[in-house]
Amino acid sequence: MRKLFVTDCEGPISLNDNAFELASHFIPDGDRFFAAVSRYDDILAYEIKRPGYNAGDTLKLITPFLKAYNVTNDKIIEFSRENISLVPWARQLLQRVQGFMPSYIISTSYRQYIEALCNLINFPLENTYYTSLDIDSHELPEDEREKLFKFKDMIVESADFETMDRIFFKEIPQMRIGKLLEDVKTVGGEGKRLALKEILEKEKLPIKSALYIGDSITDVEPLRYTRGRGLAISFNGNHYAVKEADMIIIAENALPIGLIADLHSRFGRDYIIEFVKAYTMDPERALENFRISYDIFEEFMKTFKKFPKILIPDDNIEEIVEESLQMRKRIRGEAIGGLG
Question: Which pTM value belongs to this model?
Answer without folding.
Answer: 0.95
